[in-house]
Write a structure and sequence with these properties.
By secondary structure, the chain is an alpha/beta fold. It is built from 14 helices and 17 strands. The protein folds into 3 domains: 219 residues, FAD/NAD(P)-binding domain (3-Layer(bba) Sandwich); 122 residues, FAD/NAD(P)-binding domain, CATH 3.50.50.60; 60 residues, no CATH class. The strands form 3 sheets. A 7-stranded mixed sheet has the order 1-4-3-2-8-17-16. It has a 7-stranded mixed sheet with strand order 9-15-10-11-12-13-14. Strands 5-6-7 form a 3-stranded antiparallel sheet. Helix 1 packs parallel to helix 4 and helix 1 crosses helix 14. The protein binds flavin-adenine dinucleotide.
Length: 486
């Protein structure tokens, strides 16, 4: 990233001018992970040239977020390169960029559509997209990157005012929250004092999560999903020899991607929106596919493009039923891992180093302040207690989406002022189908919007790149039609 393009203002009470001619409409985006960055890129392509886009990020790296800032080359994308373009209309953009890298940059990687690329390479691609925009003279003037932490947003007549750290302010016509993923919530236990111990690592993406760890110490990973798989791979890469236990309520582990198999015609042209009927149909179709020499993976992939439609067509009770009973199965079938990653995880399980357990954590007993800690849990379907004694506990339970308990200062401030509210299913913030935020009374804001995982309550599958890029593109179209030069 060209650091000269990132605005760093010093001193208190600075009003940051968005730039451009007087009256130029300004759209501020809070968060420059994949969602915020893609939205900015689409806005630049669709809005009148007077429109200013201000992209604000608290971390040094624009375009990466926790997903694509991992420096570990073994942390691979869980979507093949051919499906990771930033643009729906140019589906091979990422692949073409990848094919343009030198051999040393590729480090032995085959730049093919089916390749699962290290995530940090994808982060470079997103940064490259921003740099490209900054190079176009008129676009460079339209886009302002601001390094800062947004602490507050208030609605003022005809605009919104954002307050950043060091009392800096930005006034904009519209603001979009692209604040993304928050660290997992700790499992509820009667005595949560262990969560203050240095042996507990609450943020699996933080640099210290697996740092300075005795390679022979037993480790407990809370969760058995994609974040846990990342942590297992990191532990193996750093030469960890001690036992690793991964524990989740059901002990389900993500399946692996396979090459697309034969695809017999679908059972029906209709998809039920009652959750039980849908689950039955998926099971039947999967069995038919496998019988015909195909794979169940193709059945899941077939409904991927319409999962938001299915979600939005389901009644509230069925959405709740899905979350309560089917979500872990859906997640492990839908969010799969690449073959090389699955091979390493399976080898660790076969050697006995990695044990997957199903159960619910009931408590922690620290033998000494510096460990070890005995973690007790109730195994699934049993009334008895079991335990593991470990030197470190890393919470890999997946991003916390329940905004009523997320401690982030901006989230707390907006909730406190009633400008936003959590959605009913505690998957994100309440938004309309057009991504407009709803306030505590359910009134629709004309100035405040959200994009990405924040909107999962209304869209459900708003996690992976193919879904977010579609949403970013649609929202960019709406916002650019809304803002007109004053
Ligand atoms: C570890 C991990 C791996 C993943 N791997 C894949 C994958 O392989 N393929 C795939 O399709 N999807 C993957 N995903 C899904 C991922 O959710 C999306 O791809 C996408 O990265 C989400 O981007 P985002 O911008 O919405 O959120 P984030 O990436 O979380 O970015 C939000 C940004 O907002 C900033 N921010 C938050 N609050 C403020 C504030 N108040 N002021 C200023 N800045 C703020 C944060 O610093 C952060 O940079 C992965 C997710 C994770 C967590």
């Amino acid at each position: 990233m060209d650091n000269a393009s990132v605005t760093e203002l010093s001193g208190p009470a600075t009003a940051l001018p968005p730039g451009g001619p007087p009256g130029a409409p300004t759209i501020a985006i809070v968060g420059a992970g994949f969602s915020g960055t893609l939205l900015a890129l689409h806005l630049l392509r669709r809005s009148p040239t007077q429109t200013r886009v201000v992209l604000i990020e608290r971390n040094a790296q624009f375009g990466r977020g926790p997903a694509y800032s991992s420096g570990n080359s073994s942390h691979l994308l869980n979507v093949p390169a051919g499906k990771m373009s930033g643009f729906q209309g140019d589906p091979h953009d990422f692949l073409h960029w990848l094919q343009g890298l030198s051999e040393s940059e590729l480090c032995g990687l085959a730049p093919a559509a089916s390749t699962f690329v290290p995530r940090h390479i994808y982060g470079r691609y997103i940064r490259h997209l921003i740099n490209q925009e900054l190079k176009v003279p008129e676009r460079g003037d339209q886009l302002k990157l601001v390094r800062g932490d947004v602490a507050d947003i208030e609605e003022v007549p005809g605009a919104v005012r954002l307050t950043l750290d060091r009392n800096r302010t930005i006034t904009a016509d519209r603001v979009v929250l692209a604040v993304g993923n928050f660290p997992p919530a700790p499992p509820p236990v009667a005595d949560p004092s262990f969560y203050d111990s240095p042996l507990y690592k609450p943020d699996p993406w933080a640099a210290d999560a697996l740092a300075e760890l005795d390679p022979d110490l037993p480790v407990l990973l809370i969760g058995t999903g994609l974040t846990t798989i990342d942590s297992v791979i990191s532990l193996l890469d750093q030469g960890h020899r001690g036992p690793i236990t991964a524990l989740s309520r059901r002990g389900l582990v993500p399946h692996r991607h396979v090459a697309p198999g034969l695809c017999p015609p679908p059972e029906s042209d209709r998809f039920p929106t009652r959750v039980n009927a849908l689950a039955r149909m998926l099971r039947r179709s999967s069995a038919r596919q496998v019988e015909a020499g195909g794979t169940w993976q193709s059945v899941i992939d077939e409904i991927r493009p319409i999962t938001t439609e299915l979600w939005q067509s389901m009644c509230a009770a069925d959405r709740q039923r899905f979350l309560r009973h089917l979500r872990p199965w859906w997640d492990t079938h839908r969010h799969r891992v690449s073959g090389p990653v699955a091979d390493r995880v399976e080898a660790a399980r076969a050697s006995g180093q990695l044990r997957i357990r199903a159960g619910r954590i009931t408590g922690y007993r620290l033998e000494r302040p510096d460990g070890p800690v005995e973690v007790t849990f109730r195994p699934r379907f049993q009334q008895t207690q079991d335990s593991v004694t470990v030197g470190r506990v890393v919470n890999c339970a997946g991003p916390d989406a329940d905004y009523s308990r997320i401690r982030d200062p901006l989230v707390r401030t907006l909730l406190g002022k009633g400008l936003v509210r959590p959605d009913r299913l505690c998957l994100g913030l309440d938004v309309t189908g057009n991504c407009a935020l709803l306030d505590k009374d359910g009134a629709i804001s004309r100035r405040m919007f959200a994009v990405g995982p924040v909107t999962k309550g209304a869209f459900w599958e708003m996690t992976a790149v193919p879904d977010i890029r579609h949403q970013a593109e649609t929202l960019a179209g709406q916002l650019s039609a809304m803002v007109r030069p004053r």
